[in-house]
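Quick question: what would this complex look like in 3D?
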Amino acid sequence: MILLNIKFVNYTYEESLKQYTNYISSNNFSNLMCTNCKVIGNVQRNTEYVRNYIYIENEKDITETTIVITVVRCNNCGKYHALLPAFIFPYHIYSACFIMYALNMKLIKQQQAIKLISYLNISGQLLYYWIKVFNKFVSSSTIVLPQSPSKDPPKILHSILNDLQKFISDYYSKLFIMFFLNRKNHLFK
Ligand SMILES: [Zn+2]
C-alpha cells in the first residue's frame, strides 16, 4: 500500500474524500514511490475495491459508510498497492480522527472506558488495543516530539492534538506503520 498524505484535519469527511477523488481522477501519479522497489512515478492505475469506513464528525456524529480505494500496479516490480488516503489506517474500518478521538477521551479526558465504548459502539478489546499501539508508538525510540520531550502518553497525545496538522506531516507515517505492523485482523472485522 501507498499512503497519500491528504489533509483531513479540520476538513469534513466529504471534503477529504473529494481531495482523494480529485487526486485519483487527475491520474497523475508521477510523484508516487513504489513502497517495494522504491522507483518513483512508474505506477499505473489497475483496479479498485470498496471498504467499510466509520468516521466521527463534530466529536459526536458517528457515520458508517463505504469508500472506494484505488489500486495501482508498479510497472517496474509488478507489485500492487492500494492508495490509502491519510485519514485511513490500514486494516481499520475506523478513521484516523475516530481513533484519535477515542484516545483523547480515554487518555486525556479520562472518560470511563465503559461509557466510551458504548458511545462509540466499539469493543473494550479494540479500545485497549488502540491504547497499546499508541503507547508503543510513544515509547518507540525513533519518535521524538520536540514540543513534548516527555514520554508520558497523555502528555504526548495532548501535544499531538494541539497541532494535529504538524504531527501528521512529521509523524503520521510512523504511527501509520505502527498500526500496520500491529494489525490483528480479527479485531478489524
Ligand atoms: Zn515497484
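Answer marked as accepted. Helices lie at 13-26, 96-108, 113-120, 124-139, 153-162, 164-181.
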